[in-house]
Amino acid sequence: MRALLLAGLLLAAAASHADGALHTLWEVHGKHNTIYLLGSIHVLRSRDYPLAKPVLDAYADAKSVVMEIDLNELDAGGVQEEMLSSALLRDGKSLADVLGAARYARATSLAKDIGIDLSTFDQFAPWFVAEAISQLQLAQQGYQAESGVEMYFLERARGDGKSVAGLETAHDQIAVFEAMPLDEQSEYLLSSLEEAREMPHEVDDMVHAWATGDTGWFKTHLKRELGRDPKLYQSVLGARNRKWLPKIEALLNDDKNYLVIVGTGHLVGEDNVIDLLKRDGIAASQR
Fold first, then answer.
1. Which terminus of the chain is more solvent-facing, meaning fewer CB atoms within 10 Å of its CB: N or C?
2. What confidence score (pLDDT) does residue 7 get?
3. 14 confidence band (pLDDT: 50, 70, 90)
4. Rounded to an integer, what is the distance from CA 107 to the centroid of its chain?
5. Which candidate, 227, 275, 277, places its Cα nearest to that of 250?
6. Cα–Cα dist 138/203, whole Å
7. 3-state SS track over 34-86
8. Cβ contacts of residue 211 below 8 Å, gap of 6+?
9. For residues 269 and 24, is the Cβ–Cβ distance under 8 A?
10. What confidence category does residue 210 fall into, taking pLDDT thresholds of 50, 70 and 90?
């Protein structure tokens, strides 16, 4: 999902950190344990490894890893079927029908500017088209989900015998976009295409923001991407943060350490997890 990708794009230059630099990594202390909260990117390049030492140290100190979803779920055929069912338009509608003549013409032109034939996606819902095009652009720059931070730590956890859990399910994530009205999805697609030309430049900026621990950069871009539509912002970020909060706070009652990995957008901006914890009297320090 494009918004989630943008919310999470940050770990691409982990190897270039100077000593003492801040990272998108926070720690919270319970009575008998520590929770590390790591901002993530869901796609990454193989050359961006190894990750920064504080990130690797947090993983080493944790006995269990918690992600937005347990990625082991994605091996199940039912999840793939649900994704396809959600992505396909119903009742014989096409993308052109949903967008309408003016928006479809504009979207077709914008997609052509970045080398994509929009008619390829005519059977799919606008939210899925936006996500797919973003994935294609990222892949052209060498970013792959297989090299993403979550997949990296999933493989590490499997090899090290550490448990992996999710704050929500794959169904929950699909439902966020499936619940969006088609008109809202259409505007979302058009907006993403209008900004597609800037994607390569934005990735470079995100790398720099990560290297300097510049959370302000992410706040600004989240506001630009999602702030124009408060309902969308709440659906993609705010409401999910509040849903996750009790689960994260419950981990503080344990006696083992956890590494919680979520998209960076969940740790910055309005109603982010760090601020929600603070409102409950739980301080988090950035490392």
1. C
2. 45
3. very low
4. 24
5. 277
6. 9
7. EEEEEEECCCECHHHCCCCHHHHHHHHHCCEEEECCCHHHHHCHHHHHHHHHH
8. 13, 16, 17, 21
9. no
10. low
Structure tokens at 279: 């409102």
Q: Give 236-247 pLDDT, tens digit per residue.
A: 889 999 999 999
Is 64 in contact with 164 (CB distance < 8 Å)? yes
Residue whose entry in the numeric block shows the structure tokens 């919680």: 260
How many Cβ atoms are within 10 Å of 44's Cβ, its own excluded?
A: 27
DSSP assigned state of 238: I
Q: What is the mean pLDDT of residues 52-74?
A: 93
Q: What are 73's two structure tokens?
A: 């779920």
Pull the structure tokens for residue 55.
């990130």
- Per-residue CA distances from 216 to 99, 213, 268 (Å): 34, 9, 8
Q: pLDDT for 211-266, tens place per residue?
A: 667 778 887 877 776 656 777 778 888 999 999 999 999 999 999 999 999 988 89
